[in-house]
Amino acid sequence: MSASNSATLPVKLNELLSPAELALLNQRSDAQGWRQLLSHLGVLVGSGLLWAWGWHQGMVWAWLALPVYGFSLASMFATVHECVHRTAFATQRLNDAVAWLAGVLSFYNSAFYRRYHKWHHRYTQIPGQDPELEDPVPTTWGAYLWQMSGLPWWLGKLRGHFRVLRGDFHGCPYIAPDAQAPVRRSTAAQFAVYGVGLALSLWAGQPWFFTYWLLPLAVGQPFLRLILIAEHTGCSQNNHPLTNTRTTLTVWPVRLLMWNMPFHAEHHLCPAIPFHALPQAHLRVRNRLAHVAQGYIAANREITAQFLK
């Protein structure tokens, strides 16, 4: 929904938040990062154990635990996102280590994504420059349902990862020549982890790799797609952060697993603000935001309503 018509070009951050407010909001914390990470992992491990136990026992209710486990795996992407900004923790090495491990779980590579995402922030919603706009925005129900299935994401990730492994960075201007070797090594190490996991599964004659990672992640992806499509779709294609990004007000469990990413316009206004301070930032700027949705169902209804036009 439109929260305000007061957003006009251009906007300066100091017109919205004072230097004192920014200094307070920008404070990073290892304690906050650990608290958030352990909470996320608690949901992941707890739901994963329920899924594993119920699966082995042949319990029907295990299929109720699977979506929770799957989404907690898929939403490790939010952990990657916060850590590549190096705002999850005050310690840079901790940010980088957690980003890589979370990328292994969510099938992202943090070394690649850090550089890709930096360009997304630099050129948000600018056609021909924002790499996120390379993925077509759905304009029909068929295209929308195809994207929400997660299948295009899987295909894109597989193609992208294997291009990196081959050393093919054509069409990736955000990967500087001196960064190509580190990104390739990081991706190779990630696939070595998958190789070990698959080999152990085959050696034991058990479908562990499929049952506990591949299937849950596939189940969780549609939930993540419903969230991520709301961030910029239907917003202005210009460099104005008050109009080119949508904030979505949602329930606490989603905010938890998404590391407060639903406060997305606030994040784009000032990417240095860590996840735990985004709710406070929202209180200060909410009346200036052009796009504030009351939940992800409302956001997706707003997006799909455009199909009929």
Kindly describe this structure:
- By secondary structure, this protein is mostly helical.
- It has one domain.
- A two-stranded parallel ribbon has the order 1-2.
- Helix 3 packs antiparallel against helix 4, helix 4 crosses helix 11 and helix 9 (151-166) crosses helix 10 (177-204).
- It contains 15 helices and two strands.
Short descriptors:
mainly alpha, two-stranded parallel sheet, 309 residues, disordered N terminus, 2 strands, 15 helices
Task: Please give a quick description of this structure.
This protein has 309 residues and is an all-alpha fold. It is 62% helix and 1% strand. It has one domain.
- Helix-strand category: mainly alpha
How large is the share of residues in beta strands?
under 5%
Radius of gyration: 20 Å
Query: In what order do the strands lie side by side in the largest sheet?
Result: 1-2
Q: How many individual helices? A: 15
Pattern of helices and strands: HHHHHHHHHHHEHHHEH
- The N- and C-terminal alpha carbons lie at a distance of 17 Å
The poorly predicted ranges are: 1-9
Q: Find the count of extended strands (DSSP E, 2+ residues).
A: 2
The profile of the biggest β sheet is: 2 strands, parallel
Output mean pLDDT: 93
Helix content: 55-70%
> In one word, what is the shape?
globular
Count of the separate structural domains: 1
What is the fold's blueprint, element by element?
Blueprint: H1 13-16, H2 19-25, H3 30-57, H4 62-74, H5 76-84, H6 92-106, H7 110-122, H8 141-148, H9 151-166, H10 177-204, H11 208-228, E1 247-248, H12 252-257, H13 264-269, H14 278-285, E2 292-293, H15 296-305
Parallel strand pairs: 1-2
